[in-house]
Design goal:
Length: 282
């Protein structure tokens, strides 16, 4: 498995693969990889001949006061995990390679509607940063397929929409959330949790499951259920950012007629912000 840092080298290698008639899969990440990421790589390897994993902590998607500087950078460890998962090529550019003219001067991709609300409301500019860098990665790698985790449910919806709207010829594949045994969604940011916080963290998924059970039983009083879920999180020592029951496609507030409903949650444990979601069919 090779690692390249420059776009020029990436393009030269990929040209060679394309000339051999190989299909290319892309897995965009910010590194500090865990089994959630390697499951995406395995999925990409099933769907394409060559798998490119990008590792780039994208400054454009971090807000002021967020963890851009402290976000864990663990390239050597990541390379070992990727090789084991069947990855072909790692693309690990630095910020100057991706944004040679700096962030202020960068053309941006703005995705309306699905990027509004939820994480979009709590992290202004976040999805502009994600949409822009993902569009750039699509142009850099020109993959046939790209795999993203359902753990970042709103992000996946944003990427599906930008791909459709900008007619980018790539198939977007969603991959299920990989969890710890106690239900906590695997995430690089779990590493920030103290031992005490880690013991409380599974409450996020438990609250999702308890609320989903109520929905499956036919409850339509979504506001009451959201309020009760926020209270459960608070009682466990979390600080809920949002707990929203939405239509799975539009991410707008769910209605009683919706057959596919998604519960979206973000909550702080100390300074760590955890997100998760669960979808139900009715
Ligand atoms: N537990 C998981 N299961 C499946 N996919 C995941 C999981 N965690 C992350 N991913 C996916 O991996 C890709 C890269 O995500 P990222 O590098 O931000 O990882 P992360 O662990 O979610 O980090 P963070 O804690 O910063 O959100 C995204 O498509 C994301 O949805
Ligand atoms: C898709 C992504 C790699 C873009 O920076 C990031 O938002 C992530 O890791 O989910
Ligand atoms: N996993 C989404 C990337 C972020 O939180 O910035």
């Amino acid at each position: 498995m090779r690692t390249v840092h420059s776009l020029k080298e990436l393009r030269t290698i990929l040209r060679g693969y394309r000339q051999q008639g190989k299909t290319i899969g892309l897995v965009p990440t910010m590194g500090n990889l865990h089994e959630g990421h390697t499951s995406l790589v395995r999925k990409a390897a099933e769907a394409s001949d060559i798998v490119v994993t990008s590792i780039f902590v994208n400054p454009m998607q971090f807000g002021a006061g967020e963890d851009l500087d402290t976000y864990p950078r663990t390239l050597m460890d990541d390379q070992r995990k990727l090789a084991e998962a069947g990855n072909t090529l790692v693309f690990a550019p630095n910020a100057e390679e991706v944004y040679p003219e700096g962030l202020a001067n960068q053309t941006k991709v703005v995705v309306p509607e699905v990027s509004e609300g939820h994480c979009g409301a709590s992290r202004p500019g976040h999805f502009e940063g994600v949409a822009t860098v993902v569009t750039m990665l699509f142009n850099m790698v020109q993959p046939d397929i790209a795999v993203f985790g359902e753990k970042d449910f709103q992000q996946l919806a944003v990427i599906r929409k930008l791909t459709r709207d900008l007619m980018i010829p790539v198939e977007i594949i969603g991959a299920p959330t990989v969890r710890e045994e106690d239900g906590l969604a695997k995430s690089s940011r779990n590493g920030y949790l103290t031992e005490d916080e880690r013991a409380v963290a599974p409450t996020v998924f438990q609250t999702l499951k308890e609320t989903a059970d109520q929905l499956v039983q036919g409850r339509n009083d979504f506001g009451t259920l959201e309020q009760a879920a926020r209270q459960s999180l608070t009682n466990a020592g979390l600080r809920p950012d949002y707990f929203n029951i939405v239509n799975s496609l539009t991410l707008k507030p769910a209605s009683g007629q919706d057959q596919e409903i998604t519960l979206l949650v973000a909550a702080f444990l100390g300074t760590t912000r955890l997100i998760d979601n669960l979808s139900v069919k009715r």
